[in-house]
Amino acid sequence: MTLPNQVLISQDLSCVGQVSLGVALPIVAALDLQPAVLPTALLSTHTGGFGANTYLDLSQQMQQIIAHWQTLELKFNAIYLGYLGKAALPVLAEHLSNLATANAQILLDPVMGDHGRLYSGFDQAYVAAMRQLARQADVLTPNVTEARFLLEQPQSQQGLTIAAATDLASQLSQQLAVPNVILTGVPLINGQIAVVGCSQQKTWSWQTTRLPGHYFGTGDIFASVCFGLWLHGLSLEDASQQAMLFVQQAIERTAAAATDIRLGVDYAAGFQQLLAKL
């Protein structure tokens, strides 16, 4: 059984804080697609500023869910993978080919680090496993830190030029045999922030004003919007631009309202404008 408009989303769910599955599911649904979910973990809050959050690994439950789906011969035309975790990643690596149709479009956001460091609990073995999983993806959306870990390159906190970021994206595409790579949140030497893409030997970039502060969940929002628009037929170049603008405007609304940034950004107010792009 193949459900043509369904998008399988597999990542963690935080009970408080708009990140990961908490934003991916409503965004995919708002874009007139039907989300199906395969949660990797359940957290009381996300890990940014709330203190000692709880963490329930769901990798064993994932295997039971997949086993049930296999009795239904259930497969998906679109799959979106985000934060997985050390126990869940091997489950997806083993079963991804069984969950995907022959022509499935798979986006992998290899969430594992930022600011030149791996997130807590991850190590080089996790990076190596993520590198192998990336070879099954059609679209890869790492930040600069994740890109350098995947390429086994030294980390740096210095800003990049567009040319250097484009080279980084191109190297990922070539070395991991991923047809489409979108480098997100690229800090530029001119003080702006950019999205840089490499797709079938074509490259592009979009840049915008870099706003002060750190806002949780923006990478998840970007990937969700970009993937959803791409599934609707926009080019990845256009989809990435619209996703960048959507995130930028959500941050601006949140900054103007001066709300608690730990709770995430005000992205839902931009749905009407986003849907007009379809």
UniProtKB/TrEMBL annotation:
Keywords per UniProt: ATP-binding, Kinase, Nucleotide-binding, Transferase
Molecular function, one GO term: pyridoxal kinase activity
Domain Pyridoxamine kinase/Phosphomethylpyrimidine kinase: 30-255
Domain of life: Bacteria
E.C. no: 2.7.1.35
Leader sequence residues: none
Keyword Kinase: yes
Protein known as: pyridoxal kinase
InterPro entries: PM/HMP-P_kinase-1, PyrdxlKinase, Ribokinase-like
Lineage: Bacteria, Bacillati, Bacillota, Bacilli, Lactobacillales
The keyword Nucleotide-binding is assigned to this record: yes
